[in-house]
Amino acid sequence: MATTVMTALSASIGFNFNPLDRRSDKRDDHAFLEHLRSDPAARFLVFDGDVPLLKRGSEYDPWFVASETTAFGQPLHSVFLGEDTDGSGRFALGFVLNPALNLAPEDPSPGTAYDRIDLRSLALQDLVAAGTLGTLAEAKSMLDWHRRHSFCANCGSTSRVTTAGWQRVCDACGARHFPRVDPVVIMLVIDGERCLLGRQRHFASGMYSALAGFVEPGETAEDAVRREVMEEARVKCAEVVYFASQPWPFPSSLMIGCFAQASDTDIVVDTAELEDARWFSRQEVAAMLAGTHADGLSTPKPFAIAHHLLQAYVEKGGLVLPG
After folding, report:
1. Distance CA 165, CA 156 (A)
2. Which of 14, 163, 276, 296 has a Cα at 20 to 30 A from 6?
3. Is pTM, for the whole model, over 0.85?
4. Domains of the chain, start order
5. For strand 43-48 and strand 63-64, is the pairing parallel, antiparallel, or unpaired?
6. What is the tens place of the pLDDT at every residue in 112-142?
7. Other C-beta atoms within 10 Å of 64: how many?
8. Which ranges carry the Nudix hydrolase domain (predicted)?
Protein backbone atom coordinates (compact mmCIF):
# COMPACT_ATOMS: atom_id res chain seq x y z
CA MET A 1 0.00 0.00 0.00
CA ALA A 2 1.12 3.53 -0.71
CA THR A 3 2.45 5.72 2.07
CA THR A 4 2.73 9.48 2.26
CA VAL A 5 6.36 10.62 2.49
CA MET A 6 6.86 14.38 2.47
CA THR A 7 9.63 16.80 3.25
CA ALA A 8 8.97 19.47 5.87
CA LEU A 9 8.93 22.07 3.09
CA SER A 10 6.35 20.24 1.00
CA ALA A 11 4.11 19.56 4.00
CA SER A 12 4.13 23.25 4.95
CA ILE A 13 2.62 24.33 1.61
CA GLY A 14 -1.16 24.54 1.47
CA PHE A 15 -3.09 21.56 -0.02
CA ASN A 16 0.10 19.45 -0.18
CA PHE A 17 -0.46 17.08 2.73
CA ASN A 18 -3.06 14.42 1.97
CA PRO A 19 -2.87 11.42 4.33
CA LEU A 20 -5.10 9.13 2.27
CA ASP A 21 -3.89 6.04 0.46
CA ARG A 22 -5.68 6.56 -2.85
CA ARG A 23 -5.81 2.80 -3.58
CA SER A 24 -5.87 3.32 -7.32
CA ASP A 25 -5.38 -0.44 -7.63
CA LYS A 26 -8.86 -1.00 -6.15
CA ARG A 27 -10.94 1.54 -8.05
CA ASP A 28 -12.51 -1.17 -10.23
CA ASP A 29 -13.01 -3.62 -7.37
CA HIS A 30 -16.71 -3.14 -6.70
CA ALA A 31 -16.86 -5.53 -3.74
CA PHE A 32 -13.96 -3.73 -2.06
CA LEU A 33 -15.55 -0.32 -2.62
CA GLU A 34 -18.96 -1.44 -1.40
CA HIS A 35 -17.38 -2.88 1.74
CA LEU A 36 -15.67 0.44 2.45
CA ARG A 37 -18.78 2.50 1.68
CA SER A 38 -21.05 0.41 3.92
CA ASP A 39 -18.58 0.33 6.81
CA PRO A 40 -19.81 2.52 9.72
CA ALA A 41 -16.31 4.02 9.83
CA ALA A 42 -16.66 5.41 6.29
CA ARG A 43 -16.73 9.19 6.01
CA PHE A 44 -17.97 11.49 3.27
CA LEU A 45 -17.16 15.02 2.15
CA VAL A 46 -20.25 16.92 1.00
CA PHE A 47 -19.95 19.66 -1.63
CA ASP A 48 -22.59 22.11 -2.76
CA GLY A 49 -21.27 22.89 -6.22
CA ASP A 50 -17.58 23.59 -5.63
CA VAL A 51 -17.98 24.62 -1.97
CA PRO A 52 -17.69 22.11 0.89
CA LEU A 53 -20.14 21.90 3.77
CA LEU A 54 -18.69 21.91 7.27
CA LYS A 55 -20.41 20.90 10.47
CA ARG A 56 -20.28 23.47 13.21
CA GLY A 57 -18.80 22.70 16.60
CA SER A 58 -15.77 23.65 18.63
CA GLU A 59 -13.94 23.14 15.32
CA TYR A 60 -15.22 22.88 11.78
CA ASP A 61 -15.66 19.27 10.64
CA PRO A 62 -16.19 18.46 6.94
CA TRP A 63 -16.61 14.70 7.46
CA PHE A 64 -20.13 13.22 7.44
CA VAL A 65 -21.29 9.70 8.21
CA ALA A 66 -23.47 8.05 5.58
CA SER A 67 -26.75 8.62 7.44
CA GLU A 68 -26.06 12.36 7.68
CA THR A 69 -25.70 12.72 3.91
CA THR A 70 -29.23 11.46 3.21
CA ALA A 71 -30.63 14.85 4.26
CA PHE A 72 -29.13 16.33 1.10
CA GLY A 73 -30.81 13.92 -1.32
CA GLN A 74 -29.15 11.94 -4.08
CA PRO A 75 -25.65 13.14 -5.02
CA LEU A 76 -24.97 14.10 -8.60
CA HIS A 77 -21.43 12.74 -8.37
CA SER A 78 -19.50 10.41 -6.08
CA VAL A 79 -15.75 9.82 -5.96
CA PHE A 80 -13.71 7.36 -3.92
CA LEU A 81 -10.87 9.41 -2.46
CA GLY A 82 -8.95 6.64 -0.72
CA GLU A 83 -8.40 4.89 2.58
CA ASP A 84 -7.58 6.77 5.75
CA THR A 85 -4.71 5.65 7.96
CA ASP A 86 -7.07 3.30 9.85
CA GLY A 87 -8.17 1.62 6.61
CA SER A 88 -11.63 3.21 6.51
CA GLY A 89 -12.98 4.62 3.27
CA ARG A 90 -13.19 8.30 2.36
CA PHE A 91 -15.54 9.55 -0.35
CA ALA A 92 -16.62 12.85 -1.89
CA LEU A 93 -20.24 13.59 -2.79
CA GLY A 94 -21.31 16.41 -5.09
CA PHE A 95 -24.72 18.07 -4.77
CA VAL A 96 -26.52 21.21 -5.87
CA LEU A 97 -28.35 22.04 -2.67
CA ASN A 98 -31.53 23.97 -2.06
CA PRO A 99 -30.75 27.57 -0.97
CA ALA A 100 -33.58 27.23 1.55
CA LEU A 101 -31.23 25.11 3.67
CA ASN A 102 -29.65 28.43 4.77
CA LEU A 103 -26.07 27.24 4.54
CA ALA A 104 -24.45 30.60 3.79
CA PRO A 105 -21.53 31.33 6.13
CA GLU A 106 -21.99 35.10 6.04
CA ASP A 107 -24.90 35.17 8.50
CA PRO A 108 -25.61 31.64 9.69
CA SER A 109 -28.84 30.98 11.50
CA PRO A 110 -28.38 29.61 15.04
CA GLY A 111 -30.65 26.74 14.10
CA THR A 112 -28.61 25.48 11.14
CA ALA A 113 -25.89 22.90 11.56
CA TYR A 114 -23.65 23.58 8.56
CA ASP A 115 -21.67 26.33 6.88
CA ARG A 116 -20.57 26.60 3.27
CA ILE A 117 -16.95 27.82 3.24
CA ASP A 118 -14.92 27.93 0.05
CA LEU A 119 -11.56 26.20 -0.03
CA ARG A 120 -9.51 29.36 -0.41
CA SER A 121 -11.07 30.81 2.75
CA LEU A 122 -10.47 27.56 4.63
CA ALA A 123 -6.79 27.75 3.70
CA LEU A 124 -6.38 31.47 4.39
CA GLN A 125 -8.06 31.26 7.78
CA ASP A 126 -6.49 27.91 8.74
CA LEU A 127 -9.91 26.52 9.66
CA VAL A 128 -9.14 22.81 9.15
CA ALA A 129 -6.12 20.58 9.65
CA ALA A 130 -3.51 20.38 6.89
CA GLY A 131 -4.39 16.78 6.00
CA THR A 132 -8.07 17.63 5.76
CA LEU A 133 -7.30 20.60 3.52
CA GLY A 134 -5.31 18.37 1.16
CA THR A 135 -8.15 15.86 0.96
CA LEU A 136 -10.67 18.64 0.32
CA ALA A 137 -8.47 19.82 -2.55
CA GLU A 138 -8.51 16.34 -4.08
CA ALA A 139 -12.29 16.18 -3.72
CA LYS A 140 -12.94 19.65 -5.12
CA SER A 141 -10.83 19.07 -8.22
CA MET A 142 -12.46 15.72 -8.94
CA LEU A 143 -16.03 16.91 -8.46
CA ASP A 144 -15.34 20.00 -10.55
CA TRP A 145 -14.02 17.77 -13.35
CA HIS A 146 -17.24 15.75 -13.35
CA ARG A 147 -19.39 18.89 -13.47
CA ARG A 148 -17.46 20.21 -16.46
CA HIS A 149 -17.09 16.96 -18.40
CA SER A 150 -20.48 15.28 -18.51
CA PHE A 151 -20.26 15.01 -22.29
CA CYS A 152 -17.71 13.24 -24.46
CA ALA A 153 -15.15 15.64 -25.93
CA ASN A 154 -14.78 13.30 -28.91
CA CYS A 155 -18.40 12.95 -30.11
CA GLY A 156 -20.54 15.05 -27.76
CA SER A 157 -22.56 12.17 -26.31
CA THR A 158 -23.24 11.84 -22.60
CA SER A 159 -20.45 10.00 -20.81
CA ARG A 160 -20.80 7.81 -17.73
CA VAL A 161 -18.69 7.52 -14.60
CA THR A 162 -16.52 4.45 -13.98
CA THR A 163 -13.49 3.47 -11.89
CA ALA A 164 -14.87 4.86 -8.62
CA GLY A 165 -15.19 8.32 -10.14
CA TRP A 166 -11.71 8.47 -11.70
CA GLN A 167 -12.72 7.89 -15.30
CA ARG A 168 -15.58 8.69 -17.67
CA VAL A 169 -16.49 6.46 -20.61
CA CYS A 170 -18.48 7.31 -23.72
CA ASP A 171 -20.59 4.33 -24.78
CA ALA A 172 -21.33 5.97 -28.14
CA CYS A 173 -17.76 6.14 -29.44
CA GLY A 174 -15.74 4.25 -26.82
CA ALA A 175 -13.60 7.21 -25.78
CA ARG A 176 -12.23 7.21 -22.25
CA HIS A 177 -11.70 10.46 -20.36
CA PHE A 178 -9.46 11.03 -17.36
CA PRO A 179 -9.25 13.87 -14.83
CA ARG A 180 -7.17 16.72 -16.15
CA VAL A 181 -4.46 18.56 -14.27
CA ASP A 182 -3.14 21.80 -15.76
CA PRO A 183 0.58 22.42 -15.10
CA VAL A 184 1.51 25.98 -14.13
CA VAL A 185 5.02 27.29 -13.55
CA ILE A 186 5.51 29.85 -10.80
CA MET A 187 9.00 31.29 -10.70
CA LEU A 188 11.12 33.63 -8.67
CA VAL A 189 13.61 35.34 -10.96
CA ILE A 190 16.83 36.27 -9.16
CA ASP A 191 19.53 38.82 -9.87
CA GLY A 192 21.96 38.51 -6.98
CA GLU A 193 20.53 40.31 -3.95
CA ARG A 194 17.25 41.19 -5.61
CA CYS A 195 14.35 39.33 -7.18
CA LEU A 196 11.60 40.09 -9.68
CA LEU A 197 8.02 40.36 -8.42
CA GLY A 198 4.84 41.45 -10.13
CA ARG A 199 1.22 42.17 -9.32
CA GLN A 200 -2.02 41.67 -11.19
CA ARG A 201 -4.92 44.08 -10.97
CA HIS A 202 -7.06 41.70 -8.94
CA PHE A 203 -4.41 41.27 -6.22
CA ALA A 204 -5.03 42.71 -2.78
CA SER A 205 -3.74 46.26 -2.49
CA GLY A 206 0.04 46.34 -2.13
CA MET A 207 0.58 42.61 -2.70
CA TYR A 208 3.35 41.40 -5.02
CA SER A 209 4.10 37.81 -5.97
CA ALA A 210 6.26 35.60 -8.16
CA LEU A 211 5.36 35.51 -11.84
CA ALA A 212 3.40 32.51 -13.11
CA GLY A 213 1.83 31.02 -16.21
CA PHE A 214 0.53 27.83 -17.80
CA VAL A 215 2.84 25.32 -19.44
CA GLU A 216 1.95 24.98 -23.12
CA PRO A 217 1.73 21.73 -25.13
CA GLY A 218 5.13 20.44 -26.23
CA GLU A 219 6.94 22.69 -23.74
CA THR A 220 9.20 21.83 -20.82
CA ALA A 221 8.66 23.48 -17.45
CA GLU A 222 12.04 25.21 -17.82
CA ASP A 223 11.13 26.69 -21.19
CA ALA A 224 7.74 27.75 -19.85
CA VAL A 225 9.53 29.70 -17.10
CA ARG A 226 11.70 31.50 -19.63
CA ARG A 227 8.80 32.21 -21.99
CA GLU A 228 6.44 33.52 -19.31
CA VAL A 229 9.04 35.84 -17.78
CA MET A 230 9.94 37.16 -21.21
CA GLU A 231 6.27 37.69 -22.11
CA GLU A 232 5.31 39.43 -18.87
CA ALA A 233 8.45 41.43 -18.04
CA ARG A 234 10.80 41.18 -21.08
CA VAL A 235 13.51 39.75 -18.82
CA LYS A 236 15.63 36.90 -20.16
CA CYS A 237 16.38 33.93 -17.91
CA ALA A 238 19.23 31.44 -18.06
CA GLU A 239 19.42 28.69 -15.42
CA VAL A 240 16.10 27.35 -14.10
CA VAL A 241 15.92 25.02 -11.09
CA TYR A 242 13.00 23.20 -9.50
CA PHE A 243 11.95 24.11 -5.95
CA ALA A 244 8.67 22.38 -5.00
CA SER A 245 5.14 21.83 -6.28
CA GLN A 246 1.62 22.47 -5.03
CA PRO A 247 -1.79 21.16 -6.10
CA TRP A 248 -3.98 24.19 -6.74
CA PRO A 249 -7.67 23.21 -6.84
CA PHE A 250 -8.96 26.31 -8.67
CA PRO A 251 -10.07 24.30 -10.49
CA SER A 252 -7.26 21.74 -10.93
CA SER A 253 -3.73 22.98 -11.53
CA LEU A 254 -0.32 21.81 -10.40
CA MET A 255 1.91 24.73 -9.45
CA ILE A 256 5.54 23.94 -10.30
CA GLY A 257 7.73 26.25 -8.24
CA CYS A 258 11.10 27.25 -9.72
CA PHE A 259 13.96 29.67 -9.28
CA ALA A 260 15.42 31.31 -12.39
CA GLN A 261 18.63 33.25 -12.95
CA ALA A 262 18.12 36.55 -14.76
CA SER A 263 20.50 37.15 -17.65
CA ASP A 264 19.37 40.74 -18.14
CA THR A 265 17.53 43.14 -15.85
CA ASP A 266 15.64 45.74 -17.92
CA ILE A 267 11.90 45.36 -17.29
CA VAL A 268 9.18 46.11 -19.81
CA VAL A 269 5.82 45.28 -18.24
CA ASP A 270 3.13 43.63 -20.35
CA THR A 271 0.21 45.65 -19.01
CA ALA A 272 -2.27 43.16 -20.44
CA GLU A 273 -0.88 40.63 -17.95
CA LEU A 274 0.49 42.68 -15.07
CA GLU A 275 -0.27 45.97 -13.37
CA ASP A 276 3.35 46.32 -12.27
CA ALA A 277 6.64 44.42 -12.05
CA ARG A 278 9.84 45.50 -10.37
CA TRP A 279 13.01 44.35 -8.69
CA PHE A 280 12.89 44.00 -4.90
CA SER A 281 15.92 43.72 -2.65
CA ARG A 282 16.26 40.69 -0.44
CA GLN A 283 15.82 42.96 2.59
CA GLU A 284 12.59 44.38 1.17
CA VAL A 285 11.20 40.90 0.62
CA ALA A 286 12.06 39.98 4.21
CA ALA A 287 10.09 43.01 5.40
CA MET A 288 7.16 42.15 3.13
CA LEU A 289 7.04 38.61 4.52
CA ALA A 290 7.17 39.96 8.06
CA GLY A 291 4.46 42.56 7.41
CA THR A 292 6.82 45.44 8.22
CA HIS A 293 7.48 46.94 4.78
CA ALA A 294 7.66 50.75 4.98
CA ASP A 295 5.15 51.15 2.15
CA GLY A 296 2.82 48.43 3.40
CA LEU A 297 3.69 46.04 0.58
CA SER A 298 2.99 42.36 1.17
CA THR A 299 3.38 38.86 -0.25
CA PRO A 300 1.01 35.89 -0.64
CA LYS A 301 0.01 34.07 2.54
CA PRO A 302 1.90 30.96 3.76
CA PHE A 303 -0.55 28.50 2.18
CA ALA A 304 0.66 29.62 -1.29
CA ILE A 305 3.85 28.23 -2.83
CA ALA A 306 4.87 31.78 -3.80
CA HIS A 307 5.31 32.56 -0.10
CA HIS A 308 7.73 29.65 0.27
CA LEU A 309 9.73 30.62 -2.81
CA LEU A 310 10.21 34.05 -1.29
CA GLN A 311 10.99 32.66 2.16
CA ALA A 312 13.67 30.36 0.74
CA TYR A 313 15.23 33.26 -1.15
CA VAL A 314 15.30 35.47 1.95
CA GLU A 315 16.97 32.70 3.94
CA LYS A 316 19.47 31.49 1.32
CA GLY A 317 19.86 34.29 -1.21
CA GLY A 318 21.59 33.24 -4.41
CA LEU A 319 22.32 29.81 -2.94
CA VAL A 320 18.87 28.71 -4.14
CA LEU A 321 20.51 28.54 -7.58
CA PRO A 322 23.36 26.13 -8.40
CA GLY A 323 26.90 27.40 -8.77
Report:
1. 20
2. 163
3. yes
4. 8-146 (3.90.79), 149-180 (no CATH), 182-316 (3.90.79.10)
5. antiparallel
6. 588 999 999 999 999 999 999 999 999 999 9
7. 22
8. 179-304
